[in-house]
Design a protein that fits this description.
By secondary structure, the protein is mainly beta. It is built from no helices and 11 strands.
């Protein structure tokens, strides 16, 4: 059974930074892509960023490009989402997801394992 768990959410002022962390256990972490998604009261769950199994290639949504960075440390079975220059519209529950293949995707269907989510609130 693959288990995914996020941490690092919280309340931050606009313009500030947060780093989310996510661990996945139950299978070889370094063999699979990982992704971050978010859901706000106004929007359906949407793709934020994805990273391939090695960490060499990643994809970021246009809405966060240049502000957020996904990375991973396979030795620690952990994926990160560094969020800088946060805006009020980044307020959401952020979900970490473990992929079914080594390659990242923006499609939720490619991520069969999900964490419970962590709340990020940006005050303006």
């Amino acid at each position: 059974q693959v288990q995914v768990a996020e941490s690092g959410g919280g309340l931050v002022q606009a313009g500030g930074s947060l780093r989310l962390s996510c661990t996945a256990s139950g299978r070889r972490f370094s063999s699979y892509a990982m992704g971050w998604f978010r859901r706000s009261p106004e929007k359906e769950r949407e793709f934020v960023a994805g990273i391939d199994r090695s960490g060499s290639n990643s994809l970021h949504a246009d809405s966060v490009k240049g502000r957020f960075t996904i990375s991973r440390d396979n030795a620690k079975n952990t994926v990160y989402l560094q969020m800088n220059s946060l805006k009020a519209e980044d307020t959401a529950v952020y979900y970490c997801a473990a992929g079914r293949t080594p390659f990242y995707s923006s499609s939720q269907e490619e991520y069969p394992y999900w964490g419970q989510g962590t709340q990020v609130t940006v005050s303006s």
